[in-house]
Structure formats: C-alpha cells, structure tokens
Amino acid sequence: xxxxxxxxxxxxxxxxxxxxxxxxxxxxxxxxxxxxxxxxxxxxxxxxxxxxxxxxxxxxxxxxxxxxxxxxxxxxxxxxxxxxxxxxxxxxxxxxxxxxxxxxxxxxxxxxxxxxxxxxxxxxxxxxxxxxxxxxxxxxxxxxxxxxxxxxxxxxxxxxxxxxxxxxxx
Length: 170
Description:
Elements: E1 3-6, H1 9-18, E2 22-24, H2 26-33, E3 41-44, H3 49-52, H4 56-62, H5 77-86, E4 92-93, E5 99-100, H6 110-126, E6 140-142, E7 150-152, H7 160-169
Parallel strand pairs: 1-2, 1-3
Antiparallel strand pairs: 4-5, 6-7
C-alpha cells in the first residue's frame, strides 16, 4: 500500500517516520496536478485541506481524496499512515445497498486474493446491523477494472483458503 501525506513541519517528519512513501505540502500538490497519482491512499492534516481541496478533480474520481469521515484528514498522521500501511481499506455502499470496494490487484498471488476476499466477507457479516432480517449477502460479483463481472456463491466463503491449498497439493 503506497501512502502519500500532505503535511508540513513536525507532521511531515512524523509521517516519514511512520513509513509514508511520499510526503510534502505545496510541492506534492503540484506533482499531483502534473499527473502524479502513483499512490493508493492520500492522508492530509486539516491545515493542508485548502491546498488538497484544489486536487478534488484529480483525486476524487480515483477515490483518493482525503476525508475526515474515513480518518484520512487527521492530526494523528502517524496512526493514519500505520493503519493504511497495515492494509486498512474503506468501503462504501450506494443507495441500492451495493458495496463497492477493491479486493486486490492483478499482481497479487491467488492466496492473497482469497485471504482478502474471505476477510471482506467476514467483515461485512460482522458489520451486519442487528435489525437486518433475511438473507444478508444475496450476490457477490467480482470484476477487474474493465472486465466482466463473475458471480461468486456467497454461501461458499468459509474455508476457501484450506480448500485451495488442498487442491494445489493434489
């Protein structure tokens, strides 16, 4: 997970110590305006938001715009960088209760993708509201960015990693 942090002074130093890949203020914003978007997560301190706000047209459609609700606009830069580096992923639902999120990249090993898929399904089930009745996960469809969707049976999510290991050993 590649992390870019928009911060100045002590907070910039704190971000570098926490393992941020790209740290800067106006200079980083200028690079982004020139087409640099080679990072997965953008984190900003609140004082940098007037500068980062101008990047909304670039970062917004890519889902990289820092947002206080998600915890990417914060004064605790160290914690935000560490969580992002550990693999924290945000997901959102649309009005029709469809969850859109990234499972992985094509460069990931099959086992990594399976582990991510299983973790996502478990988290969605854990986050199920107690008032929700009936079948909670009706359909699961996986797709690459520009590829066709492939339906997955939501009832067969347990023990996928063990089954894949057994199939590989056979």
